[in-house]
Design a protein that fits this description.
Blueprint lengths: L1 H44 L21 H21 L6 H17 L3 H13 L7 H18 L10 H4 L14 H4 L1
Helix pairs in contact: 2-5, 3-4
EC number: 1.8.3.2
GO molecular function, one term: flavin-dependent sulfhydryl oxidase activity
Keywords: Disulfide bond, FAD, Flavoprotein, Membrane, Oxidoreductase, Transmembrane, Transmembrane helix
Length: 184
Amino acid sequence: MLKRQSVLASVGLFLLIFVSILFVYTSETNSDTHVVQQNQQQSSTFVPDAPNFQSNDKIIMDAMGNQTERAELGRATWKFLHTMMARYPEKPSKEERKSLHDFMMLFSTLYPCGECANHFNKLITTYPPQTSSRFSASQWLCAMHNKVNERLKKPIFDCNDIESKYPCGCATTPSENDSPSSLA
């Protein structure tokens, strides 16, 4: 009789554990399914407004308090942007032109320094990005860089020399892409 009670208790305990695991598993699956369904509903009904690039209320970052980090960010940003313009196609397609324009407009709202983003947003609202060629894009960015430098009372760059200051790093032959200096 004792053996029979042990077997029944073991079977009962096993069933309790099995049902508990089953309950936990199905509730997590239902919860995950609910979240997925909720996200699908939100994504299917979410239609972003057309971006209003003319408005400074789109700046989403706060001002940067640390001036050293702000200066480092600025130098890195200008290096990145000038290099990007140096690599921009000489004869861009409509899609490439739109991509550059949209990038610059969005960049002016997402820049990590809110105060800088606000100033740059005002600049590109007044002087929209020039995207018709590599030359026009690099000259436009140089002019914007000089506008920022004027405001910060920094030296003005000679825009005629901008290509030598920020070379594109473009390879003229396929083997140049594999050189050790191109990997750094």
